[in-house]
Amino acid sequence: MQSSHSVDEIEVAYERHGDGQPMLLLHGGMAPKEYWHPVLPHLDDYAAVVPQRPGFGTCLDDPEETSAADVLAREVDYVRALADAVDGDPILFGHSFGALTAIEAASEVDVEAVVAYEPAILPDDFRREADLADRMADLVEVGRPGEAIKRYIEMVLHPDGLADLDAWLDDWPVWPQCVDLVEEVIRMNRAVEQYRLPDQLDVDAPVLVLSGTAGPDFLRESARSVHETLPRSRFVEFDGVSHSGPSETPERVVAAVDSFLAK
Q1: Which pLDDT belongs to residue 2?
Q2: Whole-prediction pTM value?
Q3: Which residues form the AB hydrolase-1 domain (predicted)?
C-alpha cells in the first residue's frame, strides 16, 4: 500500500506491507527501495515500511562542502518524520548507510529496537586513506557514471573480486537503476569518509548488529566496533555472507532478527 504524509514540513512517502509492529526498512547508499523486495516475504510478523527516501543530502547546494553531520542530520530528520507517520514506536532495520542512519536516528527518536547490517562506518586507519568519493566523482565528471558505480561495487560488495563483473551485473535486480543514484552515492561516501565513531553511542533501544564474513574486512571490523560502543547490543556474524546480506540470504538474516526481537 502506498502512503504519503507531511510531518513538520517534511514529505514522506512509503510502501507498507502487512500488519503488525512497524519496521522501517532503510536501504543503503546505492540500492533503491527495491533492495528490500527479497526480504519482504519473510517479514510476515511485521508491518514492513519501505520509504521513498529523498537521497543522501540531495537538497544541499554544495554537497562537496557538506559535513557528515549535515548529511546524517537530514537523514535522521526524515526517519523521525517517517516514525511519526506510523503507529507506535517502530523497529528500525538499516543496511549499510541506512544502518548508520538507523543508529543515529535511534539516539533521537523513540524506537522499539534497531537492526543494523554492517553500518557504513570506516575504521580510523582505513578512513584516513579513503578516497572512493573522489575517484567516483572523477568518473562522473568525464561522463562515466556506470563505471563510478562499478568502483563502489568492487570495493564494497565484492572486495575479493569477480571473474566477470558485467555478467554479475546482468543478474543484479537493481542494475542499472542504481546508476541514477550515483550523485547520492558519492555524497554518501563523502559523509562516511568524514564520520568518526564516538567512544559511546547514546542509544537506549536494544540494537542487533549484523555482519557477514564474505564482505569487506573493514566493515566487519566496524560492525564489531559499533557493537562495543552500544550499551545494549547483540552481534551476529553470518559465515559466507557478503555486504548484501539482507537481500542475499533473507531467511538467515530475518531468522536472526526474529530471535533478537523475541527476547
Answers
A1: 57
A2: 0.86
A3: 24-256
Which position has the grid cell 549535515? 70
* Mean pLDDT across 206-214: 96
What is the set of domains in the chain, with CATH numbers?
Answer: 2-123+197-262 (3.40.50.1820)
Could you report the per-residue pLDDT of 41-55, keeping only the tens digit for each?
A: 999 999 999 986 655
Give the pLDDT of residue 73: 82
